[in-house]
What we know:
The complex is a heterotrimer of chains A (378), B (273) and C (67). Chain A has a 7-stranded mixed beta sheet, sandwiched between helices. Chain A has a 5-stranded mixed beta sheet with strand order 10-12-11-14-15, sandwiched between helices. Chain A has 13 helices and 15 strands. In chain A, 39% of the residues lie in helices and 20% in strands. Chain A folds into 2 domains: 2-181, Thiamin diphosphate (ThDP)-binding fold, Pyr/PP domains (Rossmann fold), CATH 3.40.50; 268-377, Rossmann fold, CATH 3.40.50.920. Chain A is an alpha/beta fold. Chain B has 273 residues and is α/β, with parallel strands linked by helices. Chain B has a single domain (4-270), classed as Thiamin diphosphate (ThDP)-binding fold, Pyr/PP domains (Rossmann fold), CATH 3.40.50. Chain B has an 8-stranded mixed beta sheet with strand order 2-1-3-4-8-7-10-9, with helices on both faces. A two-stranded antiparallel ribbon of chain B has the order 5-6. The termini of chain B are far apart. In chain C, a hairpin with a 2-residue loop joins strand 2 (31-34) and strand 3. Chain C is built from 2 helices and 4 strands; from the N terminus they run βαββαβ. In chain C, the strands form 2 sheets. A two-stranded antiparallel ribbon of chain C has the order 1-4. A two-stranded antiparallel ribbon of chain C has the order 2-3. By secondary structure, chain C is of the alpha+beta class. Chains in contact: A-B, B-C. The interface between A and B is large, with 42 and 39 residues. Strand 9 (226-228) of chain A pairs parallel with strand 2 of chain B, so a sheet runs across the interface.
Amino acid sequence: MAIKLMQGNEACVAGALKAGMRFYAGYPITPSTEIAEISAEALPKVGGKFIQMEDEIAGMAATLGGSLAGLKSMTATSGPGFSLKQENIGYGIITETPCVIVNVQRSGPSTGLPTSPAQGDILQARWGTHGDHSIIALYPSSVKEIYYTTIRAFNLAEKYRTPVILLLDEIIGHMREKIEIPENDDVEIIDRKVPTCPPEEYKAFKVKEGDIVPEMAGFGTGYRYHVTGLVHDETGFPSGNELVADKLLNRLIDKIENNKDDIVTYDEYMLQDAEYAIISFGAIARSAKAAVDHLREEGIKVGLFRPITIWPSPDKQLLELGKKMKKIYVIEMNAGQYFLEVDRLAGKHTTVEKYGKINGEIITPEDIVSFVKEDQNA
Amino acid sequence: MPSGLVNQYFRTQNLAHIWCPGCGNGIVTRALVKAIDALGLDKDDVCVVSGIGCSSRAPGYLDFNTLHTTHGRALAFATGVKLANPKLNVIVVTGDGDSSAIGGNHLIHAARRNIDITTIVFNNNTYGMTGGQYSPTTPTGDKGTTAPYGNIDAAFDLCNLAQAAGASYVARGTIYAANQLEKNIIDGIKNKGFSFIEAMTTCPTYYGRKNKKGNAVDMVTYLKEHAINKIAWEKLPEEKKVGKFVIGELYSSTRPEYTEQYDRLIDSFKKGV
Amino acid sequence: MPENKEKSLTVDKEWCKGCGICVAFCPKSVLEIENGKVEIKNFDACIQCGQCELRCPDYAIYLGGNR
C-alpha cells in the first residue's frame, strides 16, 4: 500500500497513467497547468508522448490526432481554454474519437477572477459544442476520487468511443490530500475494441451486433479508412442523406443515453431517512457533507446526494428524490446551472431551491447551514 | 475503367469528385498521388490530413489513412497523428484560407518545430467553398464577394512565411507545371522535417469570374505565362519580375526533426541515461 | 490502334466536366470538346506525350486502357 500526499492535479495524471494514457497535448492555463507539467515529465519515461501546442484549439486537435493514431490521449485546460476547445470536442463526438478533456474550472466569464474557483462550466460541459449531441462529464470530489475518476474517464472514453469531460474544482486540483493506492491495484482498465477482420471487410463506423460502438483501428495498422466531421455513413464517407444523418446522430446520442445505468455514478449520504436533500458536487459537496452533519445535530433530517456523473444526468435518481423529499437544495458555485437540471426532474414533484456563489469565494458549511435554516424558518 | 494510377490510389467509388469544372484541385491531388507512387510508399503508411474547404475534400477520394478535420486545424491534428505514430508519412492538404487565415498559427508552429509533415497548400486565392470571399492570398486590388470594391489587404507570400517560420523544405508549383509540382512533392516527402509546397491552382467559378480572369484554360494559361522557374528567376532583372512569380524549390535545409528528437528523449530513459 | 502507338487514349465521359484544359494544352490538336465532353478527334496525330492526363482535373482522360 503506497500512501502519498498528493495534489488533485497530480492524482489526475497518476490516474491517467494508470489508465494507459500515452499521449498528452495541451496549452498552459492556470489552474490546470500542473497536469501538463507532470505529464511532460512522466510520459517520455513510459514511452508516451507529450506536446505543448501553440494554442488551446491545437491542444484539442492534437489530442484527437494522437487518439486516432492509436494512443490513449488526454488534454487539460480551464474555462477560457475549454471554450476554445469546443469545436474540436464536437469533432471528437461525431468521429467517435476517445479522449479525456480535463477542465479545472475557474471563475468566468472571460478571464474572470484568475484563478478563483468556480463551478461555472456545468452547462458548457453539456452544451459547449454546437449541434445536438450527448456527452459524458464526471465530477470527483476528493484527491483520491480524482485518481479513480480519471481512470474511469478513460475507460468510458474507450468503451463508448467519445470525448469524456472531467470537471475538477480548482480547490481540489490544488489541494493536497493523503491518498492510498494499493501496490497491485487491480482496477479495471478498458481499451478500445480494435478490428480483427480482413481490412477489406472493415467498415469503420458500423456497429457490430452486440457491440455498443464500432471497432476502432488506429491509423497505420493496415485498416485504411476515412474520418470526417461531416455526417457519414458506416464506411466513414460523407453523406447528405437524411436517413444516414438520422441514424448516425441518433446513434451517437443513444450510445450514451441508453447506457446510463453503466455510466451514471453518484454518492449518497444520510439520505435513508431524510426529508430534505442537498444536492452538491465536487469540492462544494464536502462543505455540504459537513453542513448535513451540523443540520442533523440540530434535528433537521437532511441528506446529501452527490452526482459524480454530471452528464448524462442521473435522471432516475433525481426524479426519485423529488418524490421522496419535502424540499431539495441545490448548492453550487455558480448562479444555478445544475439547479436547472434538478428542477427539471425533481421539480415535478417537490420544491427545488438554489444557493450559489459567483464571487470566487468558497461556499462554506456555515453558508449552507444558515441558508437551509433560514429557508426552514421562512 | 480509370487509369492504373487512379485505380491504385483513389477511392474510385467516390469519384467523380465535387470540384467544379476547371478547378485545378484534381491536378494537384494527382501530382500528390504520382509523388507517393514514385516514392513507392505503402498505402498503409500514408496518412493524409485536411481541414475545411474545397481542397480539404481531397482525402475522401484517396485510399490512404485519411482525416478530414475542422477548419484551419489540419496541421494541429496532423501533429498529433505524427507524434503518436512517427512511422506514418503524414501529408496535409489544405487551402490558402484554411492554412494561412484560420490555421495560420498552426502553420507557423508546425514549421517552427520542423515536424516531419509535408503540407501542400492548394492556393486558389479565394474561399471557394463559401462562394468567393477574399483570402489572405487574394492579390491587393482583386475582388471577392466580401471585397466588392477591390481587396485593400496585402497578400501573404506563403512560401516566405513558411520559410521564415522554420520550414526545412519550401517549394512553389503550378497546376500547369504539374510534373515539376510532382517532383517538388517527392522532395518534400523525402525531406525529414516540415515541408511546405504551395500549389497555385485555379478557381474559375468564383475567383476567375469575379475578377474577369476568363475560363479555366485562360487561368491555366496565366499560370503558364507568369510562373518563372527558380533558375531563370535568379537571372531575371528586377523590372522583369514585376507581375511574375517564382516556382520550383525555393529553400532547403537540414535541421533536427521534432519526432526524432522526442524519440531520442524516450530512448534516453530506456537506456537509463 | 495505329502501329506507331504504344498506348491508346482513354476517355471517361462520366467523369469529364468539359473544362477544356486537355484540349488547350494538347500539342497536336488531338482533342475537342463536343456537347460539354472531351472527344478524341484525331488519334493519329497523338504523340503520346500525356499532357492531357497530366492536367485533367477529373481523371477523365489517360494514356493506356482499352479504347
